[in-house]
Amino acid sequence: MVAAEDAGRNTTDVAEKLDIEPDMVVQEIGWDEDVDDTVREAIEQRCGAELLDEDADEVVDVVLLWWRDEDGDLTDTLLDIMTPLADDGVIWVLTPKTGREGHVEPSDIAEAAATSNLAQTSNLSVGEGWTGTRLAYRKPAKTKK
Hints:
- The protein is built from four helices and five strands, in the order H-E-H-E-H-E-H-E-E.
- The protein is α/β, with parallel strands linked by helices.
- It has a single domain (4-14, 24-137), classed as Vaccinia Virus protein VP39 (Rossmann fold).
- Helix 1 (2-17) packs across helix 2 and helix 3 crosses helix 4 (106-115).
């Protein structure tokens, strides 16, 4: 019985796990036939709006980046998508789980994040076939007075 309850909540819980809040502006980049539509629908339901596509030029709170190993240079892409990102915004890099086609090594994400001056703050399972890595702007070091 608990498993059935969990299965019903998983679709809405994924948006909560990704820290999506009502009225947030969420942009989606890297959509392809292989993305998890359940995750997309949960995010749209939670934020109350459709996901913006990669051509949108609004300031966004969250960028969902569906990324596969063959998609190119992650550092360049991160630098490009940081432009419309709000100062307190986050990027979720969604990659195929280990063993799946297009899997990206976590070290590759960490290296691209560091080069882009982003901090990797958490990782989690997002749907059946995807892993999410949360990236945010690095906070300036606090100086003692």
